[in-house]
């Protein structure tokens, strides 16, 4: 035997002989209807319409955001599609040149004040 007995217990060859003759035709007709319905599924077309409230904006109307300085994005503070308020932080930009320039300007201003202080003391 190719198949195990437990598998064969649930087949039509075992189930149909137990039914009366008129029930066998009903079972076969039901199987044909189900197979025909499955075979006709690719040919069915259903219109889908959805009613919803809201604003529809095409992708061409997106707002473009430009940074005033260049650099590498360090961290993103909002998710895509989220609403943002005016002056809300969106991303953090890491710019080593900008950081070095601010350090230099701070050092330069401190040394300038130091020289002014020395000139006043003397």
Describe what this molecule looks like in 3D.
There is one protein chain. With 122 residues, the protein is mostly helical. Among the domains are: 9-43, no CATH class; 73-78 and 91-122, no CATH class. Helix content is 44%, strand content 7%. It is built from four helices and two strands; from the N terminus they run αααββα. It has helices at residues 5-8, 12-15, 21-40, 96-121, and strands at residues 72-76, 91-94. Strands 1-2 form a two-stranded antiparallel ribbon. The longest helix is centred in the C-terminal third of the chain and has 26 residues, at 96-121. The N and C termini lie far apart (114 Å). The relative contact order is 0.06. The model has no long low-confidence stretch (mean pLDDT 76).
Q: What is the ordering of alpha helices and beta strands?
A: HHHEEH
The largest sheet has its strands arranged as 1-2
The low-confidence runs, each spanning 5 or more residues with pLDDT under 50, are none
Tell me the radius of gyration.
Answer: 39 Å
Helix segment tally: 4
Shape: elongated
Average pLDDT, all residues = 76
Largest sheet: 2 strands, antiparallel
Approximately what portion of the residues adopt beta-strand conformation? 5-15%
The count of DSSP E runs of length 2 or more, i.e. the number of strands, is: 2
Helix content: 40-55%
The computed structural class is: mainly alpha
